[in-house]
Amino acid sequence: MRIRDFFIQQSGWGQALLLVFLFCGGAVVASIIALVSQGLSGKALVDIDLARWAQTVSSVGMFLAPALAMAWLCDRRPGRYLSLRGVADGRVWTLVVVNMLLVAAPINLLGALNQEMSLPAFLEPVERWMRAQEDLAQELTVAMIGDGSAGQIAINLLVMALCPAITEEFFFRGALRRVVERFGAGPRASVWIVAALFSAIHLQFYGFVPRMLLGAYFGYLLLWTRSIWVPVCAHFVNNATAVIALSDPALKDNAMVSGEIPDGAYVAFLIPALFATVLFFFFNKKMRRYLEKG
Q1: d(CA 134, CA 205)
Q2: pLDDT digits (tens, 9 = 90+) for 200-252
Q3: Measured between alpha carbons, how far is residue 1 from residues 10, 18, 170, 179 in Å?
Q4: How far apart are CA 70 and CA 18, in angstroms?
């Protein structure tokens, strides 16, 4: 156990370097597995099934495996490190689901506003690159959604909703939060630092603000409940809602789903978004009361 003692005693920088090493190593291994899988299958790199497999392998290699390794190397109680305790109060879980459905309206409105972001003229090359990354992510999402059949939806709920919810929460709210706190950041400061990094790593800059706010909410859920499974649930509901909405031809072009709100229609969307925000804060206050009494 000497190796564990060594890493437990490391400073924030030491543990940060370890996490970066594990992240990069996981990315390399995941890339090798994806390339070998592509070679064995004989499928083109643009094959959607192969893309789903590559995304899953990448999520596990880059996020879940490093988080589990950090928990084992940096704490004698890995379960405590990752906050694996459960929450028995069913009311908490119900309110988490309700809150994620409520927050969709204001988050999508913020996303539409974020899309209007424009950089100064001298940063035009950067803006073109950011737009290209955004378009690429959008094209991949549309391709992976497929024909919207029940089978496709079930697969996408696993690949695009459940897998990212578990792997990303374990990495960001589990391991990275611990590393940030190792630098002396307080619980609330660490929530926002991790949320910013969580949003940045997705390389979708025209959704940076709403994704950061979602990440902050996931962080506060962990702070309030001390259970990683609660933000995992919230993350899953957020992703699953998007998968289901984008799979429905009647919903995918809706402005609040696509984020493409017509000019002059922002006020009409602002009213329900504000109403949903008020309910969101009300139910969160109620949830915290349940947790305090429990």
Answers
A1: 7
A2: 898 777 788 999 999 999 999 999 999 999 999 999 999 999 899 888 776 66
A3: 15, 17, 23, 21
A4: 8
